[in-house]
Give the backbone structure.
Amino acid sequence: MAKGRTVVGILGGSGVYDIDGLNSSQWKSIKSPFGEPSDELLYGDLDGQEIVFLPRHGRGHKIPPSHVNYRANIDCLKRAGVTELISVSAVGSLREELAPGAFVIVDQFIDRTIAREKSFFGPGCVAHVSMAKPVCNVLGDCLQIAARNAAIEYVRGGTYLAMEGPQFSSFAESQLYRSWNCDVVGMTNMPEAKLAREAELCYASVGMVTDYDCWRIGHDAVTVEQVVKVLLQNASLARTLVKAVTPLINAEPSLSTCSCKTALDGSLITAAEARDSAVLLDLDAVAGRVLKK
């Protein structure tokens, strides 16, 4: 990847399985040492900005949240040259003011998933990255401006509770999440955000509200039919947001020096002479910058 080149990655959630309007678009397969990604990657450009799109659940929504290979997805996007990554995903609202159809530019997470590989690192090469500020603030600024310019209803800032799924919340769980001051609940942004940080990608998340979860008195229990109806509306707005934000990302000079891109500095704790060479081969894309030092 050429120094200073910006490549915008888009991870599409439920209802967002492609990006229309791309020039010279082509689906391509990329191999990862971490297994199979959710689908091929869609390459193209949008008004001159390089785009790489990956449907998180695969085209046709074939993969449930717990079976998404989050490591392979992030690794493949890194190998494709992605420098900035925008995640869009369906979420349930835990706040009265966040009505179905609203977009939330998330800035914090609580991870309640239990059945997923959550790090590229492990035995043979151990690393600990900071997740105090889990999203890129600069990328969030770009999304906020784009949403405002596109007249999309949005809220800047919110805590995303990541649950394992695939079942929706119980009433007691929904009430618990609200007591923790969470704003939205979803099933896919963890460990995705953690892995993006380990891969030194600028990452931002947009939660697209489909329902009120099940906490709201008088609100029927969440059903797939209900969610899909709003999903279709949100998917169109998500594509509008992507088109509005890409020129802003391309024009933002501070992204090239963002601290997200040096997240691994000081994070590797395994001594160089003790690192497993086989493990290092798998890390060539996500951690090549620091491993080559």
The helical segments are 70-79, 137-149, 171-179, 192-198, 224-250, 277-282, 288-291. The chain has a mean pLDDT of 93. The chain is about 25% helix and 20% strand. Residues 7-291 form a domain with the Rossmann fold fold (CATH 3.40.50.1580).
